[in-house]
Fold these 2 entries.
Entry 1:
Amino acid sequence: MLMLTSFTLCCFESILYVYTAELYPTEIRSLGFGWVSLVGIIGSIVSPFAKTIATSISLNSWFVPAVLGFVAWGFSWCLTETHGKPLRDTIEERLD
């Protein structure tokens, strides 16, 4: 089960990188990739602490990641669909 969960998380991260490439204008695409990488690094640092805290208050160690996953899934519904739309090349077009 742990390997299946790890595989699923790797798939979601790959999809996130593809979505990031389509979401941001060309001028700031590298900033978008940097932001996604930063959030991943912070998550890697915080996850052992979250597991320790959850265990210390008698919660299942998978409870915190599950809650955060559902929150992220909920926020993903707010994202706009980019399939079939042309990528914007400047920030000015994005602000309109």
Entry 2:
Amino acid sequence: MTVSNGSHGMAASARWALSSDKRSLLVVEDPTAVEAEPVPDGFVFASEDLGVAVQRDGVWDVAPSPDWRKLAAGLAFVLQGRERDKIPASEWATLARQTGLSADSLRKGAFTSSGMSLAYGFAQPAVYDFAVAPDSTGVYHPIVLPMAGGWRVGWSSAGDALLVGANPARAGDDESSPSFVAVDLRGRPIPGETPSPAMVPWTMGPTLDVSVPVDFNEQHTIAAGARTIESGSGWVRVRERSEPRGVTHVVGPGTALVATASGRFVAALVPNDSGKPGDHPARLVVYDLGQGRE
């Protein structure tokens, strides 16, 4: 499962977080444009306990709830000027239909997403609740809140409030939200003092950049329960404790970065064989060893 199917920007950083029991994994590809301007992210959330693997493109931010049973995302929308001096009303109207909000509220809630050209970004919070069954095709759909906000998202430490971040002050991919509002899963404000977002245990991974080579021959191992994930010579392999010494099975190309507790889900960098000039030399994927495929 490819972590991001959207734009990879001029460069992209990888990061991931594991739940405290290491049975759930969240992997994010965070690209940036020229002058570090924001580009929407892509993510994969995978859980051994819940038996789910969800991929989504087009978010500004994503954060698991403290119990890792829900996932908040700031859905990303961008309107580009494309050498025009303003965004046509028809494009605001199209975005209004996509978000279910009025064009006037979109204009008020948008932020400047480029310092070099006319471009606006818009954020809308959404929540994946994995207690709700997927649709008939097995797809999990988020609850999209009828409000603007979500440049940054988080949860209260008790997990009973979604924290929706305000727009960035500048057009920078690493900008924080200057403030948060606490809401329930219907987007209704929760009275009282707004808590600080619970910390997510992010690990910063490699940078994907055309000028940064990736060594797929590096040898290393990851212990994951009864499995050992091995990388080297361009391949990710798995060794089962129950099998004879020296017996391994090829998972796929690349080099492993992190695995869940039992080794079912493995995040890895794999060679990018798109052949397009200027593409990054690697892409970020999550292997599902339970199903034997990316």
